[in-house]
Amino acid sequence: MRQFLPFFSLSLLSFLSTTCGATSTTSDTAAADYHEQLVLRPLPQSALLASFNFRSNITVSEFEAHNFRFFPRSLGQILQHAGTRELHLRFGLGRWDSESWGARPWDGAREGGTGVELWAWLEAQSDEEADHKWLTLTNALSGLFCASLNFIDGTRTTRPVMSFQPEGDHPNTTATDTHLLYGVLPHEVVCTENLTPFLKLLPCKGKAGIATLLDGHKLFDASWQSMAIDVRPICPAGGECVLQIELTIDMVLDIDRSKRPRDNPIPRPPPGHELPCNTSKPYHSHDTCFPADHEANQDWTLSQIFGRSMKGTCPLTDSKVPPVCLQVPNSRAVYHSDGVLEKKNLDRISRCFEIKPDADFEIVLPNPRDDQENNQGAITHIVKPETPLLYAERSFTGHGQERGGMQTILRNPSPDTAVEFIYMESLPWFMRIYLHTMSARIDGQSGKDESLVKEVYYRPAVDRARATQLEVRMRVPPASTVFLTYDFEKSILRYTEYPPDANRGFDVAAAVITILNSANEAVYNLRTTTLLCSLPTPDFSMPYNVIIFTSTAIALAFGGMFNILVRRFVAADEGPEVGLAAVKAKLKGRLAVLAKRFGGAGAKKGVVEEVKPVPVADVKE
Amino acid sequence: MSAQQPLSDDSATLTITNSSNVSTKKQPPPEKPSDVRRRSNVILSFWLIVLLLGLPIWWKTTTIYRADLPLEEMLEWADGKACRPVFPLRISIQASALQDQEAQNLLRLTQHALDDLNDFAGHHLRLQLSSPLGSEKRSTTDNGSALTIRLTPGEGTTSTLDPLEPILDITYSPNTIPSPTSSSSSLATYIASQLRSTFAEEQATISYLLSTNSMPSEHRPLSLSPETAESLAKRTTRSLKYAPTYHLTFSLFTSGPLPSSWDIESAIDEYMKPVLDVLSPIHNFTIDTQVQLYASPGVQSQVLNKEDLTSFINAAEWPLSPSIGGAPTINFIVFVGNQTIASADSSSQSWLIPQWGTVYLLSLPSDTIHVPANTLKQPLLTFTSHLLSLTGTPESGSLPLRLSTLARIRSADLLLRASSTLGSLARLAMALPSISIPSSVAAGVSETMSHLRLACDTLGGPQGLEHARIAEAEAERAFFEKSMVGQLYFPDEHKIAVYLPLLGPVAVPLVMGLINEIKAWRKRKREKAEKGAEKKKE
């Protein structure tokens, strides 16, 4: 019976998650103007995924009349000024470890690569107008979010063709006056100064509701975190169109690290008797310890991991949506503070809590070993992560400063279903790719497999003006690994184009992988990690060296030529005396003249002085 | 070429022997004259290349482009010499009950009285008699008069300003009409003093504006009393810089979770819109509103002192970012809370923050969820009156009169501002000879000056404001030209470091060659002269 349980719950989970996704998208249009929810999901290896979601609506008529209530005015103004129809902004940090954490939250739709990513559908009559509005948008957002978004210029902007589809309801999406622009800043370091403006956009700020748990110290200490802002128009059938803003923060906290007290943040080895040991090992004794599996150690409280407890709920929120949900199996005991209503969901792997508006909220997850005598493996204490549709890894190959190669390893874990997706790269102009070297091959087979790449959209870079855009539609057969490789050439930059830390290398933005279903709809997104490309870096005192060197060469050549033209050549014994002795004699003569002038008419010297001018006159004749 | 001088140092005798040695030293064969000429030509051609080709190319490639600016003229504008701001205000008199001649006489006398009273040449009231049929409205606006005086016979001499029209109603008793021969009249003096007091504020403001700018002393208008100057200074610092469009942001801030909605749209329509409509010839307004919960003010104390008011706005947390786009933002904040202001007048609930906006403290029952429009009446009326002072509208007089005064004050202000910007630009161009001046700056300057000229000629009229506005915008644009800034940071040491390694080694052989050639030439000349002298002797 126990053997079946994992399988059962797994299939149920996948079934329920798809239905939940479907219901949530249909219900959010009908929902109230504002709602917020926090979903906590313990992950293997002592990690905890916390997904904060805030969603508010404004009707289009209110938006156009500039009457802002739940929708932030600062952002609304920018959208109106830049003619933005749909906006997606992502701040990302860290790496999602899909091997152990499984599928990404929100199916990867609410995350970006490391750094900042921005894409938007703009209303414009021409490409130039769209570029102009894009410039306005990036500059305004840069000010609003304290990020260097204004550095998204033409060289970092692309216009994806296949990878992105609008999420909102646009009256006619194929209209020529809607332009999609995509910009990415992989070098941007996301930090607290980006969180503060983010919290300002919320109706309840950080003062009430789940947003009280958001603390910059904990958020940016996480193993992986992503902040997302999505603005899209939604037109329910028969209702008035609304503009919806969705703010999402996902983070994977390392429980051990989060539980470290703030006043004593330096990790120290625990004393021997506190070490979690695996007692089932035969060699276990008082002086030998085999470390217990991380997964077993999943006890925490809300205030421990977030540094504070939750203060009530935001009064504006939709009362039908429970503010906090926890995804652990129903069998596991969870303690919570008074006045909280716990509701176990039918899927048996999640429960939600209904909280009184002005009471503090706290959850305690006890150590599962304490409440269950027979330790039956970690799988019953946490929900087993869902397997992602595709694993992707990207790395540089090759050596030297002149050429390089890129290799992406794409693995389809499914035993029976092929995966079809669009792989998009937006490469900086100084990486000039050789498109003819692009090839895809299946692991274990030699030679490239032409059937894997179905479609390629390539827009070459223009030096200092445009980035390379490469979109590849691919298919990975079931249970196989595909290597996608291509070579590129590194170009040499101009002296002033190097950043101050030129030897660190140049960040290359993450590749965006959009997995499509049979109806060509995006069902899952993932991004590879960013890469660091090192370019040939000159010594920066070079210009002065070059100036000095060429000047010397020119001066030498000129001096020699000039002297040849101008000097008269005579035999060595015919010319004037040269060398040190001649200089000495001349100097003495000069000194003597000076002595005569200042020393008066000394009788003794007079003899010398009278004679001295003689040779001068002799030679001068 | 110049022979070295082998010198001995031992003794005189040795020197003599040495010198005899030198004289016996083998001499090079005499140079052919063609060789000497060729050498001179080589040196000459090198120098010609350097001077005629090298220097001009170097000059051309390293010179900084400086467009010609009419500096003299710009400074004249800045010093107020180019334009004497004169506001000729026409005031028409409607006296339907009077005989034409009587009316003419009255007008003459009143004008005299006015001229006697007036000591500020820049602000001039010119009376005219409107046609007897001119009682219809159109004529008063068409002939561009700033004010109409309606004289009606009545008991006693009284005057009232019409609240809706720019009309001054004056009643007079019929016996005060001056006879055609009399040289003074009490009615004329009365009208003159009434007019004077009506325009006193405008006069004071304009003369204050002129006096704060660098106007030459002969144009310096009437001297203001220190108190008036102080109150005017206060009012000018309070008002925002002129802009054709202002952005109004209405914000509801609450310290807790409630209230979370308000009827601001209908309240604005009802209480504020009329004034905005009246202001529309001078300013456009765009409006947005927002609700912000859990907004903690910068000061937590229950009773707010005067010092607390300056720090009440919590700029770090409140999302009051100015609007994007060009328009300056005026903030109107309704703060729902139970804080009060400590002042002698206990009823005061609001205060004005100069050049920024207004805060109104509204205390509501703690369970109010929605703020209805009628609760917002008092805040919005306060905002309206503060809006007028933030835009710099004068305080006395009827509304239409205040608005026309505002237009005149604004055009004077813009005119002076543009002039002083021109002056700063001229001084900058003179002070920094190495700054580049792109042609766009020159174009902006000439545009500014042509509009300033037009504005100066039409001061007091609606075109005057428009021209002054364009002139000011152009002047600012020329002054803040981006490419002018970069050149400031190019030090001379840098140039030397770049040029010296090349020019030094090249220049040394060139200069030495020239010096030697000149020496040789002089020597040859002397030898020739000696030879000539010897020949003569022979």
UniProtKB/TrEMBL annotation, chain A:
Residues 1-21 form the signal peptide. GO terms for cellular component: GPI-anchor transamidase complex. Keywords: Membrane, Signal, Transmembrane, Transmembrane helix. Pfam families: Gpi16 (PF04113). PANTHER family: GPI TRANSAMIDASE COMPONENT PIG-T, GPI TRANSAMIDASE COMPONENT PIG-T-RELATED. One of its GO terms (biological process) is attachment of GPI anchor to protein. The keyword Signal applies. This is Gpi16 subunit, GPI transamidase component. The chain crosses the membrane at residues 542-566.
From TrEMBL, chain B:
Pfam families: PIG-S. It comes from the Eukaryota. It is a multi-pass membrane protein. This is Phosphatidylinositol-glycan biosynthesis class S protein. It is found in: Endoplasmic reticulum membrane. Belongs to the PIGS family. It comes from Podospora australis. Pathway: Glycolipid biosynthesis; glycosylphosphatidylinositol-anchor biosynthesis.
